[in-house]
Amino acid sequence: MTTLAPPSAGASAPVGGPPAPPPPPPPPTTEPRRETPRPPARPGLALAGAALCVLAAVLLGFAANLTVVGHLQHARDQQTAYDELRKELALGTAPVGQRDYEGKLLGPGAPVALLRIPALGLKEVVAEGTTPEVLMAGPGHRRDTPLPGQAGTAVIMGRQWGYGSPFHDLRLLPVGSRVEITTGQGRAVYEVTGIRRAGDELPAPVAAGQGRLTLITATGAPYTPNGVLRVDARLVTAVQPNPPRDLRAGWIADSEQALGTDSGAWLGVFLWTQGLLLAALLTVVSFRVWGRWQTWICAGPLLLALGLADSQSLTALLPNLL
User: Is the residue at 162 inside a domain?
Assistant: First the structure.
């Protein structure tokens, strides 16, 4: 009798049968994401970073104020002053002395005249006062002198390089050139008689009933004034009457003299610098906590604005004819 042995365990499946399913893949092995540890906080580095932010903002704002931003500010201030002066001339309320039509003493920056120098292509509104802040907006009339067109010597100062540099080409003005000034008393015309620098001979005193105009600006290398340039011109039109004056010759502050500086601007520098330092500290902290790009997008404009404000106060500490 024949006995059939059972198939061995390793025997293959019958031919023609379904293929054996592949073995299941092994489970994926995922390693936990490793986070880069933040460096330990160092107050000294944070303070140094804030100081660098303050320095960069002030230097950038300072350069901008003396160049592009300052020129734009001058153009805006001139347009505003021109509109105000034109309105006052049309209404007959433009100032003709140290007081306005209501009898109040003119404040610094009030428009008092329109200056034209055809030979230089210059047209500027002249404001009352000669402090550094007033001369940022354009030429200024020295308050202790008569207005142009009146008897005596009228003095107008202007910047040489910064804030529109209205008197930059004053040294090129030839003798005999005309200077036209419009005030509340009408149009006055002057004729240039000479240009003076330090050490030059002084002109003869103005005769009674005559008028003279002196235009003043700085001399020296760009943004480093070391002297004063004066252009003298004699009045060739009729002399206008002089109203009573409250300020006599010399009754002005040192900041209104030629190359004068405003020591009162230190308060603004102190306050703006404090705000800038606080914003810089917050920027450094936000840089570590929030992120680089988010911080710069939000803090950049703020630092720039504070830097411009701080540097403008610093500019008032520089000579007013710069």
Answer: yes
